[in-house]
TrEMBL record:
<dbReference type="InterPro" id="IPR021908">
    <property type="entry name" value="YfbK_C"/>
</dbReference>
<keyword id="KW-0812">Transmembrane</keyword>
<dbReference type="InterPro" id="IPR022156">
    <property type="entry name" value="Uncharacterised_YfbK_N"/>
</dbReference>
<dbReference type="Pfam" id="PF00092">
    <property type="entry name" value="VWA"/>
</dbReference>
<keyword id="KW-1133">Transmembrane helix</keyword>
<feature type="region of interest" description="Disordered">
    <location>
        <begin position="108"/>
        <end position="223"/>
    </location>
</feature>
<keyword id="KW-0472">Membrane</keyword>
<feature type="compositionally biased region" description="Low complexity">
    <location>
        <begin position="157"/>
        <end position="176"/>
    </location>
</feature>
<feature type="compositionally biased region" description="Basic and acidic residues">
    <location>
        <begin position="127"/>
        <end position="141"/>
    </location>
</feature>
<dbReference type="InterPro" id="IPR051266">
    <property type="entry name" value="CLCR"/>
</dbReference>
<dbReference type="Pfam" id="PF12450">
    <property type="entry name" value="vWF_A"/>
</dbReference>
<dbReference type="InterPro" id="IPR002035">
    <property type="entry name" value="VWF_A"/>
</dbReference>
<dbReference type="Pfam" id="PF12034">
    <property type="entry name" value="YfbK_C"/>
</dbReference>
<feature type="transmembrane region" description="Helical">
    <location>
        <begin position="68"/>
        <end position="88"/>
    </location>
</feature>
<protein>
    <submittedName>
        <fullName>VWA domain-containing protein</fullName>
    </submittedName>
</protein>
<dbReference type="InterPro" id="IPR036465">
    <property type="entry name" value="vWFA_dom_sf"/>
</dbReference>
Length: 701
C-alpha cells in the first residue's frame, strides 16, 4: 500500500508557490510512494477505496503508473493540487470533526479518528497501543518539515497487526536527522491566528493533530494512590550514658491510635510507615493485670521489674507498670458529654461518617439515664444539632446522629469553640465534662496550623473540660493534628478503623475513656551510674519533657482514666556487662566529698507526679529500683510482662530500629505465643496474626 504519511503532511500545508527545494522533495516522496505501492504488503485494516485519503493515493498511483510526470518540476506542480484535493474532500465530507477546538488525530494507519470530549474506555491492550503511539508521535520534531527516511523501511509483514509495523517505521524515521526547516513561503508561523484547524496545527509525520501533552507509556500510567495522611516525624530515642545524662523525663501516654493504624495497614497488605508506629501506644493498647491501688485516694499504683533482654544478652529491661484505680459503675460521676462531629466533605467515605455514627450509637447505649449529651457539627461552619439532652431520651439522640450528612469544607476551629462553649453551659461540678471530637483531622477553615490549634486547646482546657479525639479514615487522616490536640487538651486519642474497635474504645473501655482519675502525669527516672552505664527509653519520643518540666505544675502532661494500665520500658546496660555503645570519658567520674555514692545498690529511682482531676497542685510517688525488683531469667517474668515486651519488640521491628535488627519475627511470635495467657476479647490472638502478616510482607527483616 502507498505510504500516505508524506501526503498527509502535504494536506496540512497551505499551498504556496513551489520552490526548487520543495519540488525536489515532492518528487522524491512521490517516487518512494510509488515504490512502496508496488512492493509493500497491504497493511492490516487498510482496505483501498474506503477512506478519503485513498482517493488521492489512487490518483497519484495512476499518474505514476502512466508516467505522466517526467520531471521534478512537474512532480512539484502536481503534488500540491493533489494535497489540496484531499484536504477539500476531508473538509467537505467530515466538517463536524474540525469545528471548535477539538483535537484532530489519525490512527497510525492514517484512519481519521472520531473525536470525543473524553477518551472512551478501551480494553487494556488497545489503550496501551494508543497511548504508546501518542507518545511516539509527540516525541518527534513537530516543525512542519517533511522528514523522509534515507531508504524505504524494511518489511515486517510477519509481525501481527499494521500498528506495530507502522510504529517501527516511524521510529526509524525519528532516528534520522531532519533537514533544515523550510523558510520563506514554506515557513509555518504557529503563533499566527487562524480560523482553520489545519492551518493552526503543525504537521506531524503520521498524524493531523494539535500539540498535546506527552502521555506516558501504558505501563507507567497506572494510578498510584497518594498517601495524604499527615503523621509527625520523630527520631527513635538514642542511647544515653548514665554518667553524663542520668535523668530521663517524659509524659505518660495512654493513647492507642498507633496500634489501630498499624493493624489496618498490615491487613491491607502494606508495611506501615515508620512514623505511624509509636511503640508506647502499641504496648498500651492491651489490657494488663497490673496491681492497682487499694483506694481512690491514691489514683494509681506502680510496679517496677528488671529482667534480661530477649534481643540482647548484654542488657536488661527495666519494666515500669502503672495501674489506675478502677471506679465501680455505681460510683461513676455524672457525665456531660459534647459530641463534636466532623461532617465535612472529606468524611464522605464508608469508614468515616457512617462508621462514626455507628460508633457513637454504641456509646449512647452505654451511658446512664441522667448523663447529658449534646451534638455539635462542623463543615463550612459550626452548628448545634442537639442541645443538652438527657441520655434517657435515647431515641431523640440517636435520631440526631442518624440524620448527619457530609458536605462542605472543614471549619474545625469554629467547631471546637462551639463545643467547649456548650460543655461549659452544661458544666457538671464534680462530674465528667468532656468534648469528644470525631474527625479525620482535615481542618482547612479558620485556624488549621497545629501550633495555633495547640494554643486554642490550651486556653480551652482551663475551663475544666477534658478532650477525647477519635480518628476515622485512612486516606486523609491528620494524625499529627489529632495528637497535638489530645496531648494539649487533657485528653486521649484513639483511631477507629472498624466497628469492633469502636466497641473496644467506647464500650469495653468506656470507664477509662470517659472518667479521668489523674491528670498531668509525668515520670522521671534517675539512673545510678555505678550500676547502669547506659540506658534508652523504648517509645515515648513524642512525649519527652525537659528535666525541669517535671516539677513545673504549669507543664501539661498525660492523663489516666479509670482502670487504665500504662507501661514504660527502658533497656539498660549494667555496668561491666560489656554491652556499652558509648566510649567512657577519659577522665572518669568526678570524686565526691563523702568518698562514695549514696544508694549505690540501686539501679534507678523512679518518680511519678500527678494531679487529681479537679486540682492544680501535683503529688509525688517514688519507687527505688534494686536487685529485689530483679528476676533471674526472662521466663520468670509474669505473663503480662513478657507479652508487653513482645509488643515492644514488634513495634521496634516495624520501625527498623537497630536494637531488634537481628531479632526475627519468629522470636517475637515465640514470646507472644507463650505469654498469650487469658485473652477473652481476642486482642492477643489478633496480635499474633499481625506478626505473621508483617513477616510475610517482609517488613524490615
Amino acid at each position: 500500500m502507498v505510504d500516505d504519511n508524506e501526503l498527509n503532511r502535504l494536506r496540512d500545508i497551505a499551498a504556496p508557490a513551489p520552490g526548487e527545494s520543495a519540488k525536489a522533495r515532492a518528487f522524491e516522496a512521490a517516487l518512494r510512494a510509488y515504490d512502496e505501492e508496488n512492493i509493500s504488503a497491504v497493511t492490516q485494516g487498510s482496505v483501498g477505496g474506503l477512506r478519503l485519503t485513498e482517493r488521492a493515493q489512487k490518483l497519484w498511483s495512476e499518474i505514476m503508473q502512466k508516467k505522466l510526470i517526467a520531471t521534478p518540476a512537474l512532480a512539484g506542480l502536481v503534488a500540491l493540487p493533489i494535497a489540496g484535493y484531499a484536504t477539500f474532500h476531508l473538509l467537505r465530507e467530515q466538517p463536524a470533526k474540525f469545528g471548535g477546538d477539538e483535537k484532530i488525530t489519525e490512527t497510525l494507519a492514517d484512519k481519521p479518528a472520531t473525536l470525543k470530549p473524553a477518551e472512551p474506555k478501551q480494553a487494556p491492550t488497545e489503550l496501551a497501543k494508543d497511548k504508546k503511539a501518542d507518545a511516539d508521535v509527540e516525541s518527534r520534531d513537530a516543525t512542519g518539515v517533511l522528514v523522509a527516511p534515507a531508504s524505504p523501511p524494511k518489511s515486517e509483514a510477519a509481525q501481527a497487526g499494521g500498528t506495530a509495523q507502522q510504529t517501527a517505521n516511524e521510529r526509524a524515521v525519528v532516528a534520522e536527522p531532519a533537514p533544515p526547516a523550510p523558510t520563506g513561503e514554506f515557513a509555518l508561523n504557529s503563533a499566527a491566528p487562524s480560523t482553520s484547524r489545519l492551518a493552526r496545527a503543525p504537521a506531524a509525520e503520521s498524524k493531523l493533530m494539535a500539540p498535546q501533552p506527552t502521555i506516558a507509556p501504558a505501563d507507567q500510567i497506572a494510578p498510584q494512590e497518594e498517601n495524604r495522611n499527615r503523621v509527625q516525624d520523630f527520631k527513635t530515642n538514642p542511647v544515653h550514658a548514665a554518667l553524663e545524662d542520668p535523668v530521663s523525663t517524659f509524659s505518660i501516654d495512654v493513647d492507642t491510635a498507633s496500634y489501630s493504624f498499624v493493624r489496618r495497614s498490615l491487613k491491607e497488605g502494606a508495611v506501615p510507615q515508620a512514623d505511624t508506629v509509636r511503640v508506647e501506644e502499641m504496648i498500651n493498647y492491651f489490657p494488663y493485670d497490673w496491681k492497682g491501688p487499694d483506694s481512690a485516694s491514691t489514683p494509681f499504683n506502680s510496679t517496677v521489674s528488671v529482667m534480661p533482654t530477649p534481643w540482647n544478652g548484654h542488657t536488661k529491661l527495666m519494666h515500669v507498670a502503672i495501674k489506675g484505680f478502677d471506679i465501680k459503675p455505681t460510683e461513676q460521676p455524672k457525665a456531660n458529654l459534647v459530641f463534636l462531629i466532623d461532617v465535612s466533605g472529606s468524611m464522605d467515605e464508608p469508614d468515616k461518617l457512617p462508621l462514626l455514627k455507628s460508633a457513637f450509637r454504641l456509646l449512647v447505649s452505654k451511658l446512664r439515664a441522667d448523663d447529658t449529651i449534646s451534638i455539635v457539627t462542623y463543615a463550612g461552619e459550626a452548628g448545634t444539632v442537639l442541645m443538652p439532652t438527657r441520655a434517657a431520651e435515647k431515641d431523640k439522640i440517636l435520631n440526631a446522629i442518624d440524620n448527619l450528612q457530609p458536605g462542605g469544607s472543614t471549619a474545625g476551629e469554629a467547631g471546637i469553640k462551639e463545643a467547649y462553649k456548650l460543655a461549659q453551659q452544661s458544666f457538671v461540678k464534680d462530674g465528667v465534662n468532656r468534648v469528644m471530637l470525631a474527625t479525620d483531622g482535615d481542618f482547612n477553615v479558620g485556624q488549621s496550623d497545629d501550633d495555633d490549634l495547640k494554643r486554642l486547646i490550651e486556653q480551652e482546657r482551663k475551663s475544666g473540660v477534658f478532650l477525647s479525639v477519635f480518628g476515622f479514615g485512612h486516606d486523609n487522616l491528620n494524625d499529627q493534628m489529632m495528637q497535638t490536640i489530645a496531648q494539649n487538651g487533657n485528653g486521649t486519642a484513639a483511631y477507629i478503623d472498624t466497628l469492633a474497635e469502636a466497641e473496644k474504645v467506647l464500650v469495653e473501655d468506656a470507664s477509662s475513656t470517659l472518667f479521668p482519675i489523674a491528670k498531668d502525669v509525668k515520670i522521671q527516672v534517675e539512673f545510678n551510674p555505678n550500676k547502669v552505664s547506659e540506658y534508652r527509653l523504648i517509645g515515648y519520643e513524642t512525649r519527652a519533657l525537659n528535666r525541669e518540666d517535671f516539677n513545673n505544675d504549669r507543664v501539661d502532661a498525660g492523663d489516666i482514666g479509670s482502670g487504665h494500665s500504662v507501661t514504660a520500658i527502658y533497656e539498660i546496660t549494667p555496668k561491666g556487662s560489656g554491652g556499652d555503645q558509648i566510649d567512657p570519658l577519659r577522665y572518669g567520674q568526678a570524686t565526691v566529698n563523702n568518698g562514695g555514692v549514696a544508694n549505690a545498690d540501686e539501679y534507678a529511682f523512679v518518680k511519678i507526679r500527678y494531679k487529681l482531676p479537679n486540682e492544680d497542685v501535683s503529688k509525688l510517688i517514688t519507687t527505688p529500683v534494686t536487685s529485689a525488683n530483679e528476676v533471674a531469667s526472662f521466663d520468670q517474668a509474669s505473663t503480662d510482662q513478657r507479652f508487653s515486651v513482645a509488643v515492644a519488640a514488634f513495634g521496634q521491628k516495624l520501625r527498623d530500629e537497630d536494637a531488634t535488627a537481628k531479632f526475627g519475627y519468629d522470636k517475637i511470635m515465640e514470646i507472644a505465643t507463650a505469654a498469650r495467657g487469658a485473652d477473652p476479647f481476642g486482642y492477643r490472638s489478633e496480635f499474633l496474626s499481625l506478626v505473621r502478616l508483617a513477616s510475610a510482607l517482609g517488613g524490615n527483616r
